[in-house]
Amino acid sequence: MAGFLKKILPRRFRKDGVTIPAIRLHGAIMTGGSQFRPALNLATVAPLLEKAFSAKEAPAIAISVNSPGGSPVQSRLIYQRIRDLAEEKKKRVLIFIEDVAASGGYMIALAGDEIIADPSSIVGSIGVVSGGFGFPELLKKIGVERRVYTAGENKVVLDPFQPEKERDVEFLKSLQLDIHATFIQMVKARRGSLLADHPDIFSGLFWTGRRGQELGLVDTLGDMRGEVKKRYGEKASLELIQPSRSLFGRRQPGAAVAGAIAGPLAASAAELVEAMEERALWARFGL
């Protein structure tokens, strides 16, 4: 009878081994999102983190990161929420890098007490990039005149429908330098003396997981299941934390899988441009 009850009890209530909550943070990091094209940001991630860290008997939380980056603000907010919960709940955070944790993806990875990467994964890209499109010649060709009225001489800085101005670019670069400095401070604070004395660590370059370990960006090489069993015993198991479902079986906001290109039903001009930018983020790393 005891054996039967043991089988039907949810895994987290069984006493035959440690259960480690696991979260998958996958996709480009950006605000917004839709049913057709979910986004990775604090709003979608927070419910999963709260649920994972609420597992009282779990000594650690396992988080897999697979992201080419995106919004520096959302990246830092996710990082901060992980650290706040780790300190509040007194739990160790194990970050596992799969295909890529670059730029904002690596910023999130810094929330780990340990960073474990696949040897062939991509890590780093500690820099800041801004991208966009310019359309001034297109407007001329289609016979459209753009009219903008402002109060404030800088209200149309970097307007994509006007020719690029040198002072606008200089202003943008000053913002990038501020954000880059914050990123560097985070890396130094979290990795400290583990970092190698390498001139390109903060240059925006990226490396394999194996090389990242040599540079101090990664603690060790491995995979989630193997590391959990090595650290907590052969009977240790993982419990994937997923978004709750609605009455009709659809995932509620909070999905940790992002990055799908929008389909025809979501093909507005804005979403199409965002999808192109997201695709470009992944393409930088051959994915």
Automatic annotation (TrEMBL):
Protein family according to the UniProt entry: Belongs to the peptidase S49 family.
Key words, A-Z: Hydrolase, Protease, Serine protease
Protein name as annotated: Signal peptide peptidase SppA
Entry-linked InterPro entries: ClpP/crotonase-like_dom_sf (IPR029045), Peptidase_S49 (IPR002142), S49_SppA_C (IPR047272)
Domain (Peptidase S49) ranges: 87-227
UniProt KW Oxidoreductase keyword: no
